[in-house]
Amino acid sequence: MSEFYPGSAAARGLALCHACGRVDAIEQEYCPRCGARLHLRNPASLQRTLALTLSALLLYFPANLLPILKVESITGTQTNTIVGGVIQFWQTKDYPVAIIIFTASVMIPVLKIIALLWLCLAARLGRHPFGMTRLYRITEVVGRWSMVDIFVVAILVAVVQLGSVISIHVGHAALSFASVVILTMLAAISFDPRLIWDAAAEKQSPDLTPNETR
Amino acid sequence: MRVVRPSGSSKHIACPDCDALYLAPALREGEQVICVQCHASLFNYHRNSLQRAAALTVAAAFLFVAANCFPFMTLRAGFRESQMILSQSTFGLEHQGSPYLGLAVGLFTLVAPTLIIGGLIYLLFGLLAGRRLPGAILLCRWVYRARRWNMLEVFLLGALVSLLKLGKLATLTLGISFWAFVGLIICLTAALSSIDYRELWARLEAIDRE
Q: Could you tell me if B75 lies within 8 Å of chain A, comparing CB atoms?
């Protein structure tokens, strides 16, 4: 019994080239069209995804506990953490901005880390492959939007060069937070959703379409 | 189950999300192939997809240059005024002692878009002119890889948020470059979504064989 589900390209010894999308026999080792290395499944997918996700989880703490921005103005010095910035916007009744920052900087990273861990589990358990594949696609698309807070910092630092009036410094949280976003993006790239389908076939999930209907 | 091992051919397509194997269907204008098992969108078919993408990429290239040449935002506080050019969001961080953060911002807003726009112009116009293109296959792989690291639209959201954040401390005005930037995002997104990668790769392969 092969580890790949019947009806999959891999079960027939065919690999989808991750770089150019050509389907070719795995014996070739390298894609005859673009020269990329052929794999039936992403190599060490779960290990890489887990390692990257756990690193992101570790860095999430300094990202939220340390200040991301230090603003010095005539009215005094003000340091902001990510959540502090959200609260400040909420208090000044800038509800849309508060919601945007909260969604991008707090909600999405947390949900993304949970989703990635859940996906790794799903690749073992093989339950609900259809829903899990959809979760994977959402995770991949949404992750980049977390970067918004880093860009805000970058723009503020660049635009405020009024030395004596206001000056802005980057806090230590910024680098940690950028790392969280980059690591979770890399984790999503390493994850192979096809593993969920392989596991699902072993559990005989109803989500699998019989090969004859294709 | 009988294991069939057809030698690889462009007749087969496989779903990247669930590995379902199909025979490539013949498509008509505007049709889309969706995986019946996991509902992933596999590819679209548009006639002249490469011409369309080439036109949009040229527009994006001009707007990218404009977005980087003119002031993006101007800040006024009292008698003092400071202008910000797009690339300063990268180099400003470096001057402030955050070189790694600057590097990341530079990769997402300068390097990735340059690679995508430059790469697509070389590939698409080379193909449309029927030229042999040295390095085309490697470049095409890099352009494809750079897509997800291109974060111009996220940067735009960041610009809007900082506009609101600074609006209380000083007067901020948007420069020409800001509007070029908005246009750039529209053109580049349209260009990337109109490319039919199957056709692009098939034509690169055909040229490579000659």
A: yes
Q: Enter the DSSP assignment of B86.
A: T
Q: Residues A191, A120: contact at Cβ < 8 Å?
A: yes
* Cross-chain Cβ contact B89/A155 below 8 Å: yes
Residue B38 CA to chain centroid, in angstroms?
26
Q: Do A185 and B20 touch (CB under 8 A)?
A: no
Helix (H, G, I), strand (E, B) or coil at B133: coil
Q: Can you read off the two tokens belonging to residue B135?
A: 């390095």
Q: Which ipTM score applies to this complex?
A: 0.89
Nearest in space to B145 (alpha carbons), one of B116, B120, B102: B116
Q: What is the largest CA-CA distance in chain A?
A: 74
Kindly tell me the burial class for residue B1, based on how many C-beta atoms sit within 10 Å of its own C-beta (0-12, 13-18, 19 or more): exposed
A160: left (phi over 0), alpha (psi -120 to 50) or beta: beta
pLDDT digits (tens, 9 = 90+) for A33-82: 888 999 999 999 999 999 999 999 999 999 999 999 888 777 778 888 99
In this complex, the residue of A92, A162, A174 whose CB is nearest that of residue B82 is A162
| Nearest partner of B152 among B36, B22, B80, B60, judged by Cα | B60
Using the beta-carbon criterion (under 8 Å), do A148 and B8 form an inter-chain contact?
no
Do A121 and B185 contact (CB within 8 A), yes or no? no
Q: What is the pTM of this model?
A: 0.89
To the nearest whole number, what is the mean pLDDT of chain A?
A: 88
What pLDDT is recorded for position A147?
Answer: 93
| A6 closest CB neighbour out of B1, B14, B159 | B1
**Amino acid in position A183:** L
CB pairs under 8 A between A and B: 221
The distance from CA A118 to its chain's CA centroid, rounded to whole angstroms, is 13
Residue A109 near residue A146 (C-beta atoms within 8 A): yes
Mode of pairing for the β-strands spanning A69-73 and A76-80: antiparallel
